[in-house]
Specification:
Blueprint lengths: L1 H17 L1 H32 L5 E10 L4 E8 L1 H24 L6 H19 L4 H19 L6 H32 L4 H7 L7 E4 L2 E4 H16 L8 H4 L5 H9 L2 H11 L1 H4 L3 H22 L5 H21 L3 H28 L17 H14 L8 H13 L3 H30 L6 H5 L6 H26 L27 H22 L1 H6 L1 H7 L2 H11 L4 H33 L1 H19 L3 H25 L2 H29 L1
Antiparallel strand pairs: 1-2, 3-4
Helix pairs in contact: 1-2, 1-4, 2-3, 2-4, 3-4, 3-10, 3-15, 3-20, 4-5, 5-6, 6-8, 8-11, 8-13, 10-15, 11-14, 11-15, 13-14, 13-18, 14-15, 14-17, 14-18, 15-16, 15-17, 15-20, 16-18, 16-20, 17-18, 17-21, 18-21, 25-26
């Protein structure tokens, strides 16, 4: 039964993709959501049977890779961490499948799109249920492949091509790091199974290896490259530039990528390898610092973006920073809790944005929208719910996980903890500001778009309303209903799926923090809300002279340019990395190696050599007698020298046979040449 959770999306992919000529659009609409819904029902049953009954399941189908040293099985692991992610992935994927039946209904390639979506879900489920590192790498690469296909679904658009290639190339860096980690794990542990690797981690915790004239802890080395893979997939600072550009695909794709599939894979890998990271404190420090910087960078960049989907994309990057630095502080339970909560309200925001774009004739610039509160009331309510959950408004889903992460950062009483607590509190202010800005510019500000767009604007049909309503209820109540069982003090919900070293159980300390420390995120959040209302209320749009004066200052222009150009990461990569590589690739690699060395020793070089040699032999044949005698003597000398060495290493019988063969070939060529000369005459 458990295997159908994974293979049901694969079956719908095969049917929808290979039989699209027979089933058509209607068949694709019927089959694809039903396959995901079947996985959702089975995931709920698996949650009851495995998590609530505390009975993990390991299924090994057959050996996959067999060597003399080890055997890698094709297996499936169902524990608490797996089942929690199964419900999140299948539920959001089902909502996206239902949503997309109407959103791109007129697209002639709808069956291909539905097939890609189901394939995407299959690889994410394969990654979640992996039993060893090789299988998780299969799901890892499959998720990247499907992301490329879905971002580039409208392949006639140049920007979609560029975004898909950018996402694929940047993720190659992270994939390379993860592959190094897997090779190292196999060479050290002699196995890639989770059970073997995690159980032996304490034994090798103190082993060191030489690395660039330094001595490094072996687990630090492994965990660092695992984190490199997570940086690429979960869009942490440095390799984050692909995530905002991934919005070039259809909006349902953006919801699936940002909420439940690709960007969550890196965080899932870190939490799955908690038994390794707990013995690598140096890498955990790097994880914490980089996660805090990612949250701050993405939040400040989202303040000045004007594309509706791009603002939500940067909020995803910012929330991933929260989740990653929580994992770096050994708060794996809180990290997964916020990851699940974030999936619901982030999918809600993207699907709400898609409803706006669908109603406004594909207009995404918030400066050209406005006044939609009366035209799209349901979309406004659901987007407002998602926005409140995003900023951590009290008693909504985001509040119960986001504030706990900041309390965990302060309660760790470490330098990195205080650092990310400060950044996280500032990020709470920025998040509240740009979420209010988004709602105000799209729904509450005066009308600022084309009249033709507003004349045809209307509320979306039921297949779009249904996912919005479902995700709204999840954004309202999931955090409240599951907080105690998942991150409550003393809960045994996670069992052995997550490991936290006893000295890093900061969850106990945060219960006795002062009330002022606990309400700091709320203070910053409400300050951001108040500042945004001051700037973007109806009265602020008309009479806010202070804000207009601030916009005209030189400092504000420079700051706006810096943030609007995304901290110049793209400029640095294009001018300092991509351009020199392309220059070297053309002027040195291509001209000197491809066109030079490879062609010299390749087929072109051999053809030129034979042509030149034959021309020289032909000129010798037509030359004078003394040249022929000279060539004959040189050949005779070479023959005697060769025979001398052949007598040493080869028996006399073989030498005689070779000599006879050469004589036969010589006379054969001689008579053929005379015969051909006679034919010409």
């Amino acid at each position: 039964m458990y295997l159908f959770i994974v293979f049901s999306p694969l079956l719908s992919t095969i049917i929808t993709g290979l039989t699209s000529h027979w089933i058509g659009k209607l068949g694709a609409k019927i089959i694809s959501p039903r396959g995901i819904f079947f996985s959702l029902i089975l995931s709920i049953y698996a949650f009851y049977d495995i998590v609530l009954s505390h009975s993990p399941v390991l299924i090994r189908i057959s050996p996959w890779i067999t060597t003399e040293l080890s055997i890698i099985y094709w297996g499936f692991l169902f524990d608490t961490l797996t089942c929690v992610r199964l419900i999140v992935v299948t539920s959001i994927s089902f909502c996206v499948h239902v949503y997309s039946t109407i959103y791109i209904e007129e697209d002639p390639h709808l069956p291909r799109f539905r097939s890609y979506l189901s394939f995407f879900t299959f690889f994410r489920l394969r990654l979640v249920t992996a039993e060893n590192f090789v299988q998780i790498f299969v799901g890892w690469e499959g998720v990247g492949l499907c992301s490329y296909l879905l971002i580039n679904f409208w392949f006639t658009r140049l920007q979609a091509n560029k975004s898909a290639v950018k996402a694929r190339v940047i993720n190659r860096i992270g994939d390379f790091g993860l592959s190094i980690a897997i090779f190292t794990i196999y060479s050290v542990f002699g196995s890639v199974d989770y059970s073997t690797v995690f159980s032996r981690a304490p034994v090798i915790a103190n082993l060191t290896v030489p690395f660039f004239s330094f001595t490094r802890n072996l687990l630090d080395f492994i965990c660092f490259f695992i984190f490199v893979g997570a940086v690429g997939k979960s869009a942490q600072v440095g390799l984050h530039t692909w995530l905002p550009d991934a919005i070039e695909g259809p909006t349902p794709v953006s919801a699936l990528i940002h909420a439940a599939t690709r960007v969550t894979a890196g965080v899932f890998l870190i939490c799955r390898c908690s038994s390794l990271f707990e013995y690598a404190p140096n890498v955990s420090f790097i994880v914490t610092i980089l996660g805090g910087r990612t949250a701050f960078l993405a939040a400040t960049t989202g303040l000045v973006q004007n594309d509706l989907k791009r603002v939500i994309a940067y909020s995803t990057c910012s929330q991933l920073g929260y989740i990653v630095f929580a994992a770096g502080l050994s708060g794996y339970t809180v990290s997964i809790f916020h990851l699940s909560n974030h999936a619901f309200f982030k999918a809600l925001l993207f699907l709400g944005a898609g409803s706006v774009i669908h109603a406004m004739a594909d207009e995404q610039d918030m400066r050209k929208i406005g006044g939609l509160i009366n035209l799209l009331p349901l979309t406004y309510i659901t987007t407002r719910v998602g926005s409140l959950a995003l900023r951590g408004f009290p008693f909504l889903t985001g509040f119960y996980s986001k504030d706990v992460i900041l309390e965990l950062a302060y309660g760790s009483f470490t330098i990195e903890g205080r650092f990310v607590h400060t950044l996280g509190s500032l990020v709470a202010f920025f998040t509240a500001y740009y979420s209010i800005r988004l709602v105000a510019l799209v729904f509450r500000r005066p009308v600022n778009g084309l009249r033709s767009n507003y004349e045809q604007a209307h509320e979306s049909p039921i297949p779009i309303k249904f996912p919005l309503i479902v995700l709204s209820f999840a954004s309202l109540f999931v955090g409240y209903t599951s907080r105690d069982i998942r991150i409550g003090l003393g809960t045994d919900f996670w069992g052995n799926s997550l490991f936290i070293y006893p000295s890093k159980l900061y969850r106990i300390e945060i219960e006795w923090l002062s009330t002022f420390i606990k309400i700091i995120p709320l203070i910053f959040s409400f300050s951001g809300i108040a500042f945004a209302f001051f700037n973007y209320s109806n009265q602020g749009f008309k009479n806010n002279f202070y804000f207009l004066y601030f916009k005209q200052t030189k400092f504000r222009r420079l700051l706006h340019r810096f943030l609007n150009r995304k901290w110049f990461f793209d400029k640095i990569y294009n001018e300092c990395v991509a351009a020199p590589i392309l220059y070297i690739g053309y002027h040195h690699t291509y001209q000197n190696i491809d066109r030079g060395l490879i062609e010299l020793f390749g087929p072109h070089g051999f053809v030129t050599l034979f042509y030149t040699s034959s021309s020289q032999i032909n000129s010798i044949h037509l030359s004078y007698v003394h040249r022929r005698v000279f060539i004959f003597l040189r050949a005779l000398r070479f023959l005697f020298i060769s025979l001398h060495y052949w007598f040493i290493f080869i028996s006399i019988e073989i030498v005689i046979c070779i000599f006879i063969v050469f004589l036969f070939i010589f006379f054969l060529i001689f008579f053929l040449k005379r015969w051909l000369s006679g034919l010409k005459c």
